[in-house]
Amino acid sequence: MSIENSIKEIEMMEEGFLLPVYMEYKAPNVNFKEMLRYSGLPIKAAGDAARAYANGEDFPEKALVEETLKLIDKELQFKVGFIIGRLKWDEEGYPILPFKQHSESLKSNLEKCGTVILMASTIGAGIDKLIRRYERTNPALGMFMQGLGAERVESLTDTFNKEVHEAAAKMGYKDHARFSPGFGDVPISVQKEFLDSLDAGRRMGILLNESYLMSPSKSVTAIIGLERI
Amino acid sequence: MKILDYMKDNFLFLDGGMGTLLQEAGLKPGEYPERWNIERPEEIIRIQKSYYDAGSNVVLSNTFGANILKFEEEELREIIFAAIKNAREAAKRSTGTQEKFVAMDIGPLGKLLKPYGDYEFDDAVKAYALSAKIGTEAGADLIFIETMNDSYDTKAALLAAKENSDLPVFVSNAYGSDGKLMTGADPKAMVAMLEGMHADAIGANCSLGPDQLVGVMEDYLKYASVPVLLKPNAGLPRSENGKTVYDVFPEEFSQSVAKLLEKGVRITGGCCGTTPDFIKAVVEKAKDITPVPVTDKNLSLVSSYTHAVEFGPSPILIGERINPTGKKRFQQALREHDIDYILGEGLKQQDAGVQLLDVNVGLPDIDEVEMLRTSVLELQAVTDLPLQIDTTDVVAMEEALRCYNGKAMVNSVNGKEEVMEAVFPLVAKYGGFVVALTLDEGGIPTNSADRVAIAKKIIKKAAEYGIAKKDLIFDPLAMTISADTNAGIATMEAVKGITNELHAHTSLGISNVSFGLPERNIVTSTFFALCLQEGLSAAIMNPYAREMMNVYFAFRALHGLDDNCVDYINYASNLPKVETVATAGAGANAGAGAGGTGAGATGAADISELQNAIVRGLKDKAGLITKEQLGSKDALDIVKDEVIPALNIVGEGFEKKTVYLPQLLMAAEAAKASFEEIKKAMAGSEDAGPSRCAFVIATVHGDIHDIGKNIVKLILENYGYAVTDLGKDVPPEVIVDKVIEIHAPVVGLSALMTTTVPAMEETIKLLREKAPWAKVCVGGAVLNEEYAAKIGADMYCKDAMETVRYVEQLEREM
After folding, report:
1. Nearest to B753 among A60, A70, A211 (CB)
2. Is A132 in contact with B176 (Cβ distance < 8 A)?
3. Which residue among A6, A12, A136 sits closest to B382, beta carbon to beta carbon?
4. Three-state SS string across B683-725, please?
5. Among B564, B556, B499, residue whose Cα is nearest residue B529
C-alpha cells in the first residue's frame, strides 16, 4: 500500500526524492533449499535435503537445520526502508542518483526508467551475536546460522521486491531487476551515500565499517528502476 | 544557579527538534549543519532563541555531529566554540524569564564498535574526549550525550566526558519499538551501567513518539535513582508531498508528555519533528504538575550489554569454572592462549544455568593484564551474561573494567586499607558491584562478630568514594571444614550477621568448604542450602554439579521465589533419567551433535566405533569412547590409529565431493571432542600432546571475515598441527612478529574482499624480508591460483583440506 502511495506521490513531482519510508514485515516463509545452499551444500544436495525436509524424511543435516531454526526464533526483525525519486540523467548519459557514480552497469540497468527506488533491508543484529557465538563453539551450527541469516534477508528483500513489482504493474510501470552496490562496475564505497540517503544508520541501525561492509551483516541494499509502459 | 541545584525542585525543560528547522531555513541535504554555527550564526541563534522563548531551560548546542571523524581539529574547535557562543547569545536575546542553560550536545560517532563493527572502543573514547573537552573549554553548562543506540558506544562517550570534564553529564539513548537499543540493551541494563558511572540524568530520546516510549520510561522510573529524561519525536514520520510530516501535534504531544511527568519524569523536551510550539505546550501543561521527588531505588545491579541482573531476594549463581586454580587443563589453555577453551567454559556454564560468569585468568607465568582484557572482550562478544572480574592485579582490574560493556561485578576488595585505596577509585570511576572479603591486616577472623565488624569498616570506607552499600556484596569467606570443623558454622553465622545487622548482600566461594573431603558435592550443596537459609545472596559455584542445582531450584520453590514452581518443574523434567556423572555441561550443543553424517562419508566398510562416531559427527559419543579407551590405550596411538584415519575418511569424502562442508565441520568437532579428552589426560605431563608443525593463521588487515579462516584452523588442529590464530584484521607486523617468535615454518593468510588483497600482498612482502624461511599459503573468496602467484604467495589453497594436504607435503619435504 505504502509503495503504491509513494509511486502516486512521486508522479506529482518533477524531480527529487521523497523522504524515506520504513516498514516492518512478518517473517517470510523459509526457503529451505536456499538456506541449505548458503550453508555450504551444493545445489543438488540442497535441493534433495530441502525436499526431504518438506516430506518429513530424515537427512544428514536435519538436526542442524532444526537446531538453527530453534535458536534464532525471536532473534530476528524484518525491516525495510526505501526512498523513491524521479530519475534524471547527466550530460554524459549517466543516471543522477543520491550516490555518485559513473557506472555503465547502472546506465544500462536503469535504461528508460523515469523513477527509481533505493531500498535497504535488514534482519537485525541479533543473528550476528548468535553467529559469533556458534562459530567459536560449534562451527557447523555457526555455518547454518550464516546460511539461514542469508536466506532470511534475501527472502525479506524478495518480499519487498514482489510488492514493488505488483504496485508498479498496477500503476503502469515495469520494474527492472534489482541491482546492489558491488555488482558490475559499481564500487561498494557508494554504500556510504546510499545508506545516508535512507538515514539507515539512525532509523534502521545499519552502519558501515571501514571496508564498507554493513552491520548487521545480514542486510541488503539495492536499487530498483521503474519504467513507464 | 547551577543546573543540578535548579533541577532539585523543578522540572527541567529541554529544547525541541533542530534538523527540520534547519532544513526549512535552507540547509541542503549533505550539508553539515554544524558548519552553520560559523557560516549562518544568525539562523542558529534565531532557532535557539525561539526555544528559550517557548520556555526551554536547556538548549543543546548545534554540535550533534561535531567530532574529529567529521572535522579537522582546528575546524572542530571553531565549530564548537561558535556553537556554544550562539546558544549563549540566544539565551541572552530571549525574552523568557526562566533559568537558562547551554548544553554541549554530543551525538554518536556513527561508527559501530567491535565486536559488531570494526571500530575500537579506545578510539571511540578518544574521539568523544576531544569534543567533550572543547565543549567544556567553550563554556557549556553541561554535556548532553544523546541518540546513542549501542550500550558500548554510550559507555565510550560517558567515560570520555567524565575523564575530560567536570560538568554534569546527561545521557539519553534511542530505543527501538521493541523497547531495546539497536544492539540489544534494555532500560534496566542502561540504568545499571550509567548510574554506576555517575551520569547525572538518564533517559531516552528520538526514534519514537511519547506514547510509544511509555514502557521504556516506566522501566527507567522503576529502576533509576537519578532524574529521568524524555525527549521524544513528534510521533512517527511519514512522507507527504515530498515533505516529512509527523503524526503527533503539540496538544496531543504535551498531553502524553504530561502523563509521564506525573509518573516521575523530571526532564523533558522534544526531538525530531518537534518545534517551539511543542515545548510551549509542554511547559504550559507542566504548570499544574508537582515534580515527583527522585528517590534511591536501592537496587543492587550488575549488567551486560543486553540485560541487568538484580541481587536479592532470589539467589544468584556465579559460574566458577573460568579459573585455573587446581585445573591443569585450564592452565594449559591459558599458557597456549587458547581463548576458545575459555569461551567454551563460559558458554557451557551459561547453558548449565548460571546468571553470571566469574573470570579469573591469573597464573604466575602469563601476562594477566593482557589475558584478562582479551578474555573479557572475547567473552562479551559471545555471551550476554554479566561478568565478574576476578583478579588481585589492580592494573588488570582497571583494564578489564574499562573495556567491559556494562556494569561488572568486581572480585574483590577486602578490609586492608591499601587494597581499598586501590580498588574503590576504580569502582567509583567505572561502576561496579564489588565483592568485599571480610579480612584485613589482621587476617581472617575466626569468629563471625569480627567479620561483621570488618564489613562495617568497609562500608564506611566505600562511602568516602561515593560507593553506596547497595554496590557492595560481602564474602565472609568459606573455609575448609577438613582443617577446622567449626569453620562452616563461623561462616554461616557471619552470613546471618551481615544480612540481619547490616542489611547487606553476601556471596561465598562456596566450594572451598569441602576441600580435602571425598564426594565434595554432598558437603558443598548442603552448606549452600544452609547458607541460603541464613540469607546468602549469591554463590560462586560449580554449575555442573547436579547437587548444587538441585539445592538452587528447590530453595527458590520453597521460599516463594518461583511462581507456581515453574522453574523447578522445568528443571526437574529435564533431568536425565539415569544418574550419570554430571560433568558434561547439561545439553550443551547436544542438538547439533545428534545429527550424524552417514551418507557419503562411510565409504569404508569396517571402521571402529570411535572412527564411526567421528565420521558421523557424534561429538559426545566420540569424547566418551576416547575417555574409555584412554584407560587401556596410549593417547598417541588413539590419535594415530583412530582419529586421523577417521578424519581422512571424511576429508577424502570432502575432496571427492561426497561429503559437504557442514559434515566436515561436524566430524571435525567430534574429533575435537576426542582430542579434548586426550589433552585432559595428558595435561601437566611432560608430553604436551600430539603436535605437528607450527602454523600461524590470520585474516589480513582491513578484513573482518573469519569464517573461512576458522574452518581451516579447526581442520588443521584436528590433524594435530599447532595452530596460532591471530584473529581477523591483523596488521602485517603482528603476523611477522609472531612467525619470527615461534619460527613458524608455514603461514596461512585469508582475505575475502578485493579491497584487502593489497594488505595480503604487503604481509607477504614483509614476511619474505623478515622471515624468509616461512612458506605462505593463501585463501579466500577473491583469490585464485593466478592471483595468489601474482601477490607472491607460495600456494593457493581452495579450502581447509587443500591446506592440510599442502602442510603435509611441506612436512615431508622438511
Report:
1. A211
2. no
3. A136
4. CCCCCCCCCCCEEEEEEECCCCCCHHHHHHHHHHHHCCCEEEE
5. B556
Domain-embedded: residue B645: yes
Cβ-contact B401, B439 below 8 angstroms? no
Same domain, B331 and B187: no
The pLDDT value given to residue B586? 39
Q: For each successive 10 residues of chain B (814 residues), what is the average pLDDT? A: 94 93 84 95 97 98 96 98 98 96 96 85 98 98 96 98 98 92 94 98 94 97 98 82 78 97 98 95 97 97 97 96 91 87 92 96 92 95 94 97 98 97 98 97 92 97 97 95 92 96 97 92 97 97 96 96 93 74 41 40 66 87 91 85 89 84 85 87 60 87 80 86 89 94 94 84 95 94 88 93 92 85
Domain coverage including residue A204: 2-228
Q: Which residue has the cell 561436524?
A: B666
d(CA B362, CA B373): 12
Adjacent-strand bridge partners of B436? B413, B474
Mutate to test the interface with B, among A24, A57, A61 (most CBs of B within 10 A): A61
To test the contact with chain B by mutation, choose from A35, A75, A78, A129 the residue with the greatest count of B C-beta atoms within 10 A, namely A129
- Chain B positions touching A132 (Cβ under 8 A) are 115, 381-382
Contact with chain B for residue A184, Cβ under 8 A = no
A77 touches chain B (CB under 8 A): yes
Chain A residue nearest residue B669, CA to CA = A138
Question: What does the pLDDT read at residue B664?
Answer: 84
Q: Which residue of A has its CA nearest to B714?
A: A139
Binary contact (A138, B589; C-beta < 8 A): yes
Which DSSP helix (H) or strand (E) runs through A4? helix A2-11
- Is residue B450 assigned to a domain? yes
We report the CATH number of the domain holding residue B785 as 3.40.50.280
Among B182, B702, B710, beta carbon nearest to A139:
B710
Contact criterion met (CB < 8 Å) for A45 and B669 = no
Q: Indicate whether B609 and B703 sit together in one domain.
A: no
Domain annotation covers residue B402: yes
Q: Which residue of B has its CA nearest to A211?
A: B702
DSSP letter string, B451-501: HHHHHHHHHHHHHHTT--GGGEEEE--PPPTTT-TTHHHHHHHHHHHHHHH
Question: How many other C-beta atoms are found inside a 10 Å radius of the C-beta of residue B644?
Answer: 18
CATH number at B611 reads 1.10.1240.10
Q: Which three cell numbers stand for residue A14?
A: 518533477
Number of domains into which chain B is organized: 4
In this structure, is residue B583 part of a structural domain? no
Contacts of B28 (CB under 8 A, 6+ apart): none
The ipTM value here is: 0.76
Angstrom distance (rounded) from CA A135 to CA A138: 6
Biggest CA-to-CA distance, chain B:
94
Chain B residue closest to A83 (CA)?
B239
> How far apart are alpha carbons A20 and B61 in whole angstroms?
27
Q: Residue B336 is part of which domain span?
A: 301-540
Instruction: Please count the residue pairs, one from chain A and one from chain B, whose beta carbons lie less than 8 angstroms apart.
Output: 150
Q: Which of A70, A141, A209 sits opposite B117 (nearest CB)?
A: A209
CB contacts, 8 Å: A41 with chain B = 660-662
Do B308 and B240 share a domain, yes or no?
A: no
pLDDT at residue B175, rounded to an integer: 94
Nearest CA in chain B to A3: B239
Q: Which pLDDT tens digit goes with each residue over A156-214?
A: 999 999 999 999 999 999 999 999 998 989 999 999 999 999 989 888 889 888 778 89
Residues of chain A found within 8 Å of residue B111, distances taken between Cβ atoms: 207
The predicted model scores a pTM of 0.84
Angle (deg, nearest 10), helices B800-813 and B644-655: 120
